[in-house]
Amino acid sequence: MENLIAGLEMLARWDVMLALLIGSIGGVIIGAIPGVGPAVAIAILLPATFSLDPIVGLTMLLGIYGSSMYGGAIPAVLINTPGTAVNALTSYDGYPMTERGEAHRAVSLAYSASFWGGIFGILCLILLSPVLALIAPMFGSREIFLAALLGIILVILAHRGQIMAAGLLAMFGIILQTVGLDAVTYTQRYTFGYSFLSSGVDLIVVVLGLFALSQALFLLTAPDSSPDAKPITGRMGAGIKELLGHKRVATVASGFGVILGMIPGTGEFTAQFMSYTYAQKTSKEPERFGKGSPEGLIASEAANNAVPGAAMIPLLALGIPGEALTAMMLSVFYVHNVIPGPQLFQNNIDLVYGLYFALIALNIIVMVFLLFSTNLLTKIIRVPTRFLGVMILLLSFVGVYSLRNSLTDCMIAAGFGVLGLILKRLNLPIVPIILGMVLGGIMEVKLRSALPRLNTPFDMIDRPIAAILFGLILLVLVLHLRTLIKEWRSYQPEEDHELHDSQTR
Question: Domain residue spans in the chain?
Fold first, then answer.
């Protein structure tokens, strides 16, 4: 009870509430503008949060992370253009409803499903984080190394059709974090005699370059456009009543979001497609999916909004991020010398409960805000893309320079911005680089800590949790190899048949 009161007192602080309001409402606005997204906003705000209290900085970032998908549903439903990438599936059924003259119904359903999924994910976070934190003290250096290795493998394998590229980019991220002064031997690594590399490549500089600057360059080099979203009429609260008629779909979709949100590298997209497929297969009207089915819309929005709360479970309990946004939040913990894991639940339990209450509050704030301001947001959608690009470019460079007042950092960020633009143009993933830097750093520290206590390679897996994690790594690799063999076999007969037809001719 004392911890609950301490968490509520922390949330009641004026600076925390202000950060929550800015993050929640700002996240909705950013999500509603196609082409920006939460990663860009969090990257720009990240340097500013380092000077704030941990709870204030994290609350602001969580507000953006948790609310952006609410806003992203608006353009997905009204103009068939997802505000954030994870709202793509929302447009499948949301936009056909708009074309039928049911825009207010579609938007209201999207809000209600998002709220259901968000609260469901937070409740699972509150229930599961302490359980995982009780198990976490059994994690030594070798177990954390294996957990981080499993995370990187899952992130790479999640990029189906681009596994080789994702693997190389993750390796590039791992190499990037080794640049600079070695923390143990105090020797230079990969600096090539350049003094500006002695302090290493800063994660935030890379994040701002890859996400914010690359997006700014992408918007500036693309044709200028100004989407036209028409105002909508009708009661926004009507969707809550309709959602209750589809409780099963909303709950199962939220469950998919929680389970896949905890697994590194999977996240919203996999959860959405699995929940959407489930909803279609169990629906009494499966033929309506893709043509304006309310069940499809609910499945999509409930699944993607359950992920943020679930993604915080491995971050808080083990200190292992599952995707780029939680990796950025991990840096806020580290800057303030607050280490996620069992120690967090022992030494900073008030901070943990404060984050729980903040996540619940942000969903309530966002829901109330959206019920009264949807038509205002339809005007914000019309912002020209070139203007957005200039603003993101300006704010990104201000953020980079404010880190260490270094023009060198600005040049490095610009280089990563160009790299990010190239990767976007080639349709290659950016996230593996960031997770390679974060998880690669964890792997190096833990492996070097574990090696002095190992006599043989088998000592690495001589403890129960280490053996389980190693078994999971082998299982994941074997299952993926099995999938590749199946795909190769299914392709081979077609190829042989075509060759036989050409010979007979």
Answer: 2-453, 454-492
